[in-house]
Design goal:
This protein is mainly beta. It contains 1 helix and 5 strands; from the N terminus they run αβββββ. A 3-stranded antiparallel beta sheet has the order 1-2-5. Strands 3-4 form a two-stranded antiparallel sheet.
């Protein structure tokens, strides 16, 4: 399942390059579990940069342990 977590609209002139930085934290990785608590589950998560999942810029994020908010 793909979810939009962060975005920024930037304008670039032809041939111009710009560095854009995003921080993904617990708030962006968590979801509501069966007990209606907020949790981050361990696993591998692909991060896509661009307009869709066919984007050329990707990164992998590995969460090693569950984190639950009470």
């Amino acid at each position: 399942m793909l979810e939009l977590k962060r975005f920024a609209k930037i304008a670039l002139a032809p041939g111009e390059e710009k560095t854009v930085t995003f921080t993904l934290g617990r708030d962006q990785l968590q979801f509501v579990d069966q007990s209606l608590g907020r949790i981050v589950e361990p696993g591998r998560f692909m991060i896509y940069v661009g307009g869709d999942p066919t984007a050329l810029l990707t990164a992998e994020l590995i969460v090693e342990r569950s984190m639950k908010n009470n």
